[in-house]
Amino acid sequence: MISFQFVRNASLAVAAVGFAAACTPIPDSHNMHWSPPEAKKENKIDWVELEHDVLFEPGSKKISTAEQRRLRDFLARSKFGYGDKLFVSAGDFAFADERRKAVNSALTGLGFRTVSQLKDNDDSGAVTVVIGRYVVTAPNCPDWRKPADADRGNTTMSNHGCATVTNFGAMVANPQDLLRGRAMGPADGDAASLAIRRYKAGEIKPLDTENTSSNKKE
User: What pTM was computed for the model?
Assistant: First the structure.
């Protein structure tokens, strides 16, 4: 016969084991190696270049009609915009300077302005038009690698910051500004002092009370 004391002791032992198990952290293979830096979201900024070769007939210094059309198509496909830079590159060959000037003239006629003249080692006789721009690559979002439950370390969610960083990268006009800011221009002190001058001279115009809603006549 099993005594009451034995049953009581056994019950207490089972309860103690259960209590200890409840207090012991449950291993979580998804979160046990997670660290906050893994949740950091950043836009990646890269400099890219799009190139187009303007071809010339042997011995010619002028751009043919067909090459002018190809140049226009390249600029249209590239969607040249704010923050982009335009370069003209030519190697060391006969008529290199004349052909480079012809390409610059064609670009000017299309409303573009080159920012620099480059030289390369290409001796094919072609003049290369280069569009350089900074581009934004958004982080891998949404990011739900880290499960939302069973995180006793209370670490940052893997998706934290995704929307803010992605939207910011999509809205910035010139991605170069994300790498380094631009210095502010000089303040216009004359414009800032005009209000004070008008106040001191008594030249402040009174408000037009005839057009305010509170003085309208029904």
Answer: 0.62
